[in-house]
Design goal:
By secondary structure, this protein is α+β, with helices and mostly antiparallel strands. Helix content is 62%, strand content 7%. It contains 19 helices and eight strands. The strands form two sheets. It has a four-stranded antiparallel β-sheet with strand order 2-3-1-4, with helices on both faces. It has a four-stranded antiparallel β-sheet with strand order 6-7-5-8, sandwiched between helices.
Length: 699
């Protein structure tokens, strides 16, 4: 075989491999397309889809499904006129309620409950007509709202648990499109600013879109195969992770690819070198995120447990596309995709004053001072968490007030000393009478009435003497649970109580699991124990400071009346898993420099100088994608997006740049303990001394 034939084979391979990968991805997308389109069909946003798996309120919801007609949809009609209802108003209310009773199968005849001031009239109604079907429930609520109309100063609102679920479902169903378009738009704008190219930004953005579509197909497959729950919250977070993490991986790969194009002539060979250089860091980065998210499987809360697999699917789909499809497209497009800043072979980049070099130098001159100052600042910020408002109530969970929340607020004003949201007790049918007597004798109970019976269970509807989600109603729920044997206490208020308690339980279990899983990945990558512990301590400090900043702005600035009970756990999982990413990029490059013979202090500063720009860009993109959630109409999403975005920015521009760098400089080789890099290299043996000439005596 001649020299021409020898060089022709590699050249053909360089041309063929990218096309093979592109063809494979076309096949993958064709196979995933039917499943991705069905993800919205399996999305469930009923209360039971978010409730704790083992909580009493979940048992009530599941037992209600076995009763005649299935799960009941509970609504409250609220008629109100400032200054007092007129006789005509009461007649109108009665006629409308009668019309509803004729049109729908109600559990019991609605009874009017007037307020003491005569300005409000409440009609609690319940129907089993929709059962578990969310579309039927939403249609029922829409029909009731169409029937219940006020005029000439009479206001009519439809509230209750069923109306709240419908309003929340409408919000979640509307998230998909706006969330995707807004995220893509934000990422596109940042990529244009980062790359300063009219073409290059399109490539990673399009590949991220492919990753999101693939993730939707895989998520649907998990739902059908193993029953993984899909909610509006979890699918929205999955999209955020695909675009945020995927763009981060793309930034790191493209940056390294640009470097290699300057010293390697063929784009294919340059891409192979780039993948070898940054591939391990990207794999470890995605591994830490996946490991952290999978720890959510240990959570008892249905919504948190379902978010683990979906978030992992998003990250892994982003990883696969960015390490296969993105390289193939970049190689096929060649150097011209970087126009107008084309990295010519043999060229050297323009030397600019590096902000990160200056920041690294300041951290390197007085590392202990920088480290102590940063630790004090983060600790001071974390104290703001003490100012976080209490648990978020249902009526405070929307950024814009829907009709169901307006009804709740009117009821809270009109009936300050009476429960307006039923508590549901499921008790064994053979002791229903005894349970009813015990319930009526429980402190804080205003009234109780038996309902449906089937499958050995009887439903009892309880009205508390205190307002919904107040301390008095909470005490009544706890008293019922303590006093009733073999019975379950549920309802909307009990669900909120269980959510709060379960989130506290999940936090105590999942947090140590996340720390342990991420630590193992870091130890395997960095061959050290001190460096991983340093990175974990840094991200935990960032989490505390982020919650502290939230405590300073949530109520005073944003006007939020409460904090979502799941905020602490979810923000911890995301900030630890995602925050460690940037530490991996920094430490992995630092380890490369040390392996090449650099001293740890020099290696730390070199690593910051070479990776600082791409890490900063990645941090901005990730923070911006999560900041998209702050424009959503649900307070819990706004709070989660704010805390993670702030945490990522703190991690990128303070912790990685100053604290991790200064700690690495201060620790020296100890940062790699107990690995081989922690030991000083053996001093080279001195050269043999030449024999001194023997003086010869002169004659």
């Amino acid at each position: 075989m001649g020299p021409a034939q020898t060089t022709a084979a590699p050249r053909r391979r360089r041309r063929a491999v990218p096309w093979v990968f592109l063809g494979l991805w076309i096949v993958v997308l064709a196979l995933a397309s039917p499943f991705a389109a069905k993800l919205a069909d399996v999305q469930k946003d009923r209360a039971v889809d978010y409730l704790p798996a083992s909580a009493a309120s979940t048992e009530v919801a599941e037992l209600q499904e076995q009763l005649p007609g299935g799960e009941a949809t509970e609504l409250v009609l609220v008629y109100h006129r400032d200054g007092g209802l007129t006789a005509a108003d009461r007649t109108t209310a009665g006629q409308q309620v009668a019309e509803m009773a004729r049109a729908h199968r109600l559990v019991a005849k609605p009874e009017a409950v007037p307020s003491e001031d005569g300005a409000t009239l409440m009609y609690p109604i319940a129907t089993t007509e929709p059962g578990q079907d969310e579309e039927k429930r939403d249609a029922l609520v829409a029909d009731i709202r169409e029937t219940a109309r006020g005029a000439d100063g009479l206001s009519v609102d439809v509230g209750g648990a069923g109306a709240l679920d419908t309003d929340a479902s409408e919000v979640y169903n509307a998230l998909g499109g706006p969330l995707l378009y807004t995220t893509a738009g934000v990422v596109a704008l940042l990529l244009i600013l980062i790359y300063r190219s009219p073409f290059l930004w399109l490539v990673p953005l399009a590949v991220a879109g492919v990753a999101d579509y693939l993730a939707m197909g895989v998520a649907y497959g998990l739902n059908q195969g193993i029953g993984t729950s899909v909610t509006g919250q979890s699918s929205g977070i999955m999209t955020i992770l695909v675009f945020g993490a995927g763009t981060d991986y793309a930034l790191l790969l493209v940056s390294r690819y640009r470097e290699e194009l300057r010293r390697i002539e063929q784009p294919y060979d340059a891409m192979v070198a780039a993948l070898r250089g940054c591939g391990p860091a990207i794999l470890a980065s995605s591994g830490t995120v996946a490991a952290g998210l999978l720890c959510l499987l240990a959570a008892d809360l249905n919504s948190s447990r379902g978010m683990g697999p979906l978030g992992t699917v998003g990250v892994l789909c982003a990883l696969v596309t960015m390490l296969t499809l993105l390289p193939a497209v970049l190689v096929l497009l060649g150097r011209r995709v970087f126009w107008p800043l084309v990295p010519a072979f043999g060229s050297t980049p323009k030397q600019r004053r590096s902000l990160f070099a200056a920041m690294g130098s300041s951290a390197g001159r007085r590392p202990l001072t920088v480290l102590a100052s940063g630790a004090v600042l983060l600790g001071a910020l974390a104290l703001g968490a003490l100012n976080l408002p209490g648990a978020l109530k249902q009526e405070d969970s929307f950024t814009k007030t829907p009709e169901s929340v307006s009804a709740m607020k009117t009821l809270a004003t009109a009936y300050p000393e009476r429960g307006t949201q039923p508590i549901t007790v499921m008790t064994p049918a053979d002791r229903a009478d005894a349970s009813l007597t015990e319930i009526r004798g429980t402190k804080g109970v205003d009234s109780a009435a038996p309902g449906r019976t089937a499958e050995g269970w009887t439903e009892i509807t309880v009205t508390a003497a205190s307002a919904p989600e107040s301390a008095g109603e909470t005490a009544t729920i706890e008293a019922l649970r303590d006093g009733l044997d073999a019975s379950y206490v549920g309802g909307a208020s009990a669900q909120q109580l269980d959510l709060k308690d379960t989130n506290a339980r999940d936090r105590n279990i999942v947090v140590p699991l996340v720390l342990g899983a991420v630590l193992l990945v870091l130890v395997a990558l960095l061959r050290s124990l001190v460096a991983p512990l340093l990175l974990l301590a840094a991200v935990v400090a960032v989490w505390g400071a982020s919650l502290g900043i939230a405590g300073l702005v949530f109520e005073p600035l944003f006007g939020f009346e409460g904090t979502d009970p799941g905020l602490g756990l979810l923000s911890f999982v995301f900030l630890v898993a995602l925050g460690v990413d940037y530490g991996i990029f920094l430490m992995h490059r630092m380890r490369e420099e040390c392996l090449n013979g650099a001293e740890p202090g020099t290696a730390a500063l070199t690593s910051l100088r070479t990776t600082g720009g791409v890490v900063a860009s990645a941090g901005l993109v990730l923070a911006a994608t999560f900041a998209v959630l702050t424009n959503m109409p649900l307070v819990q999403l706004v709070e989660l997006g704010f805390v993670i975005a702030v945490g990522v920015l703190l991690d990128t521009f303070l912790v990685r740049t100053y604290l991790v760098t200064s700690a690495s400089v201060a620790l020296g080789r100890k940062v790699w303990w107990p690995g081989p890099l922690s030991k000083a290299p053996a001093a080279p043996a001195p050269p043999p001394r030449e024999a001194e000439p023997v003086p010869v005596a002169s004659p």
